[in-house]
Structures are given as structure tokens and as C-alpha cells.
Design goal:
Structural class: mainly beta
Order of helices and strands: EEEEEEEEEEEEEEEEEEEEEEEEEEEE
Radius of gyration: 17 Å
Shape: globular
Helix content: under 10%
Number of helices: 0
């Protein structure tokens, strides 16, 4: 199943629900724009409309602009091998790209060469991340693995009031790569929580309120050759309620953090 937009724009007036759903195995949507009616002066609504909802395995979205929805730009269910590449996701009220399986083990995601721009939302009004990818929120038995998160640009407001307004959070993820991404502003550039086997390499971080890169309650992860400038806290923070184990830092360049 393929819906090639051929450069066309679909205007979505719905304020709630998932007007465009990908429910067939291997469905694809390339080349176009999906635009809602939400504006950055309005309140976000986590229960409002999403631009796209991926609800089947092996679906792909490429070279699509998704903009102006009160909840999510692209929302993904508990599926395997979703692929989102070369997309622009901007001006989304609650979250830009959200994968949260919660119910079962998943694997094989690709989120690469996208731009997620939430920088136009007032810093006092933004409450969630640009990108969040979670096996689960708080269940260690449900994980997602084998993700490639490469070459993205994620822009957030400068010094947001809410600490949840991170550039990206990954949680309960294993054996995945986060590389060559650019994180600008947000509370934290990238937060890696309760994960294992994550390699974060060759990323650029600037302007975060707290740390540029965080490992929280994670194990056997590495930070390699990242560049972190002008964070309001530390460059890299290794922390968590129970702490981390086996975190390696190699070749990172940190300059201008306010703390250390």
C-alpha cells in the first residue's frame, strides 16, 4: 500500500484523533505535506489530533512535511521496523515524533535525516520533547531495540520552563545507534534512560538548559566524539536513581558549560 502525495498538501481540519492512519503491513507515504490548523499561540493537547499514525509493521514515511497539529506530528504504535526519513516535523503542540510500545517487545526502527523543529513554541508553554522513543515508560520487561537514529536536526526553545522539554529522550532501548545528530536548546539535548548497548557518537549539542547528554540508570553504553557547547549545566551527566554501569566516554569535546 502506497500513498505517493507527489508534492501535494493534505489539509487536516480535525482537532482530535488520527485522521491519517497507516494500518497495512509495509504501507508507505512519500513526498508531500500534511498540515493541521494548530498554531503555536494555542495550548497543546496530548489528546488532540496527530498528523500521522503508524499502526502496522514495516511502514515508511519519507520526504513528508508534517506541521501544525495540537498533539503529535508522527505517532507510532507498538510495531516493528517503522521508518521515518527525510521528513520535516514542525510546530506540534505536545511532541514531534513519538514511539512508545508499552505492550510488547519491538525492534528495527529507523528515524534518520529528519528535522524536528519545535523552536517557535514559547519556552513557557512547551512541556514535552522533540523526539521520544520508548520501549515502555516504566516497565523493564518491555524494550525496543535495533534503532538507527542518524543525521537528524532537533530544535527546541531556549531554556524551556519544563524539564521534560528535551531534544530527545530514549527509554528502555537496547543495541541502538544515535549518531551525527544536531541538538539545539531544550532542557537536555539527549537523554538516554534505562537503556543498554546504546552508542551516541559524533553528535552536536548546544544551548541546553541542563546537560547536553545524559545517561540515566543505563548500562554498557558509550559516548564517542560528541561535541557539546554552551550547556547551562554540565556537558555530560551520568546519573539516575540507581545509577549507571559500564558507561564509556571517548573523544568527546566539551566547551562552555556553566557548571563543569
Amino acid at each position: 500500500h502506497a500513498l505517493n502525495l507527489n508534492g501535494a498538501t493534505i489539509y487536516v481540519p480535525a482537532k482530535y484523533g488520527y485522521p491519517i492512519r497507516m494500518t497495512g503491513y509495509g504501507a508507505s507515504i512519500p513526498h508531500g505535506t500534511i498540515k493541521g490548523s494548530w498554531t503555536t499561540s494555542q495550548a497543546a493537547d496530548a489528546n488532540g489530533a496527530a498528523g500521522l499514525y503508524i499502526a502496522a509493521d514495516n511502514c515508511s514515511v519519507s520526504k513528508v512535511t508534517v506541521a501544525s497539529f495540537p498533539a503529535y506530528g508522527i505517532l507510532v504504535a507498538a510495531v516493528n521496523k517503522p521508518s521515518v526519513t527525510y521528513c520535516l516535523i514542525k510546530n506540534t503542540g505536545y511532541l514531534g515524533f513519538y514511539f512508545d510500545a508499552e505492550t510488547k517487545y519491538t525492534s528495527g526502527g529507523v528515524f534518520s535525516h529528519n528535522t524536528v523543529d519545535r523552536s517557535a513554541i514559547p519556552a513557557s508553554a512547551i512541556n514535552e520533547s522533540g523526539v521520544a522513543i520508548r520501549g515502555s515508560s516504566n516497565n523493564p520487561s518491555i524494550i525496543t531495540s535495533g534503532w538507527s537514529i542518524i543525521g537528524n536536526v532537533i530544535k527546541m526553545p531556549y531554556r524551556p520552563s519544563n524539564w521534560n522539554a528535551e531534544g530527545m529522550e530514549v527509554r528502555y532501548m537496547t543495541n541502538s545507534t544515535i549518531s551525527v545528530n544536531t541538538f539545539t536548546n531544550g532542557s537536555i539535548g539527549c537523554s538516554i534512560v534505562r537503556c543498554s548497548g546504546i552508542t551516541a557518537s559524533w553528535n552536536q549539542f548546544s544551548g541546553s538548559t541542563e546537560e547536553g547528554l545524559e545517561f540515566a540508570d543505563s548500562k554498557s553504553c558509550s559516548s564517542q566524539n560528541n561535541t557539546i557547547t554552551s550547556s547551562g549545566g554540565v556537558g555530560i551527566l551520568v546519573d539516575g536513581s540507581s545509577g549507571c554501569n559500564g558507561i564509556t566516554l571517548t573523544g568527546d569535546k566539551i566547551s562552555g558549560p556553566l557548571e563543569e
